[in-house]
Amino acid sequence: MTRSSRRAAAVLALGLSALAVSACGHTVEQKAATGAIAGAVVAGPVGAAVGGAAGAAVGHIDKPNP
Fold first, then answer.
1. C-alpha dihedral, 49 to 20 to 15 to 35, nearest 10°
2. d(Cα 13, Cα 29) in Å, to the nearest integer?
3. Count of C-beta atoms within a 10 Å radius of residue 57
């Protein structure tokens, strides 16, 4: 497996895990935090940023419209 294909597999795994874990929590902040932790475990600091962004996006999607 080449280095670029490993990186692509890691990014895919990060995305899936961040979306799965970002469902945990009740507020946008909690969802962003759990996504960031999952991302950090999978891919380090860059993964934490991506996971946090994914968690925040899921949190905003789940917010009810006033």
1. 0
2. 22
3. 17
State the average pLDDT over residues 27-52.
83
CA 24/CA 16 separation, integer angstroms: 14
| Dmax (CA) of the chain | 49
Write down the pTM of the prediction.
0.63
Return the pLDDT at 19.
65
Output 31 or 62, whichever has higher pLDDT: 31
Tracing tokens 């996006």 back to the chain, one arrives at 57
Token digits of residue 22: 């970002």
